[in-house]
Design brief:
162 residues, 24% helix, 3 helices
Length: 162
């Protein structure tokens, strides 16, 4: 169904469901399923706010295809060594900023809490998502996900997607 045929409420709900699945896969450590939320030629980048504000291209994490997202997960599972920790995302203020044909743009805020094995929980990162989302036969998928984080210092190696 083309996006233009959906009511604002229905479209908002579907985008909210896509975002909820996105953070659930990360938080529940089902990262092998995470790339399936993206189209093949998707772009995923995690950018510090100061770089975004200045138009600087340097990203903390950058992938320009679904294949690179899959490689990221394989690397995380097989090559990276990091302290065990858990993430919990909280999303707010979802807003669809543009829609046309089979594509839309949306934005929402996020906070990621991190709990380490000792049981201590802290704010790991906060910022906003800027997404380009497309309608596919399999439902809504990310064409571009731009994660802009406000947190100037990330206290451990950024191994998981935000």
């Amino acid at each position: 169904m083309p996006l233009r045929d959906l009511s604002d409420e229905s479209l908002h709900f579907r985008v909210q469901q896509l975002l909820a699945e996105y953070v659930e896969l990360i938080d529940d450590d089902r990262l092998e399923q995470w790339p399936e939320l993206f189209v093949d030629d998707a772009r995923y980048e995690v950018v510090p706010r100061e770089n975004s504000d200045r138009g600087l291209p340097l990203a903390a994490m950058f992938c320009d295809s679904k294949g690179m997202l899959i490689d990221r997960v394989v690397s995380l599972r097989q090559a990276n060594i990091y302290a065990l920790h858990y993430h919990r995302h909280v999303l707010s203020n979802l807003r669809i900023t543009q829609r046309s044909g089979a594509e839309l743009q949306a934005q929402c805020n996020f906070v990621v809490f991190q709990t380490r094995v000792q049981g201590e929980t802290s704010i790991y990162s906060a910022g906003k998502y800027q997404d380009r989302i497309v309608a596919t036969d399999g439902g809504l998928r990310f064409k571009e996900k731009r994660v802009i984080f406000d947190t100037y210092r990330i206290d451990s190696l950024m191994v998981r997607p935000l």
